[in-house]
Amino acid sequence: MAKIIMALQVIPKVEESRIYEVVDEAIKVIAASGVPYEVGPMETTMEGEPDQLWAIIKEAQEACIRAGASRVMAYIKMDYVPSGSTIAEKIAKYRT
C-alpha cells in the first residue's frame, strides 16, 4: 500500500495553562512511532501507511486523555495519492 500524508490537530479540553503540555503528549506519541513527521504551528503532519497513521492518531488522542484532558477534539486532514505522497515533495520548494 502507498504511503499517504495525514495532518493531526488535537484540541484537548483542559485548563488553558495546560493546553501545550497536553498537546506535547500527543506529539510524543507521533515521535515515538517512527514515522516521518513535521510539527507545525497548528498541526502535526505525518507520513506512512493509512492503518498505521490511524493507529497513531488513536494513541495520540488517548495520550491526551491520560494527561488529564476530559475530551479531545481532533481535526484530521489526509492526502491520498494512489502512487504515494511524501512530506518532502510537498514542501521542498519552500525549503532552500
List the helices and strands and how they pair.
Blueprint: E1 4-12, H1 19-33, E2 37-39, E3 44-48, H2 50-66, E4 72-79, H3 87-91
Antiparallel strand pairs: 1-3, 1-4, 2-3
Helix pairs in contact: 1-2
Protein described:
The structure is a single chain. The protein is α+β, with helices and mostly antiparallel strands. The chain has three helices and four strands, in the order E-H-E-E-H-E-H. The chain has helices at residues 19-33, 50-66, 87-91; strands at 4-12, 37-39, 44-48, 72-79. Strands 2-3-1-4 form a four-stranded antiparallel beta sheet. The longest helix is centred in the middle third of the chain and has 17 residues, at 50-66. The chain starts with a strand and ends in a 5-residue tail after the last helix. The model has no long low-confidence stretch (mean pLDDT 95).
Amino- and carboxy-terminal Cα gap: 31 Å
Beta-strand portion reads: 25-35%
How many strands appear in the DSSP assignment? 4
Residue share in helices? 25-40%
What class would the helix/strand composition place it in? Answer: alpha+beta
Number of helices: 3
- Rg from C-alpha positions? 14 Å
SSE run: EHEEHEH
| Poorly predicted segments | none
Largest sheet, in brief, is: 4 strands, antiparallel
What is the overall pLDDT average? 95
State the strand order across the main sheet.
Answer: 2-3-1-4
Q: Which term fits the overall shape?
A: globular
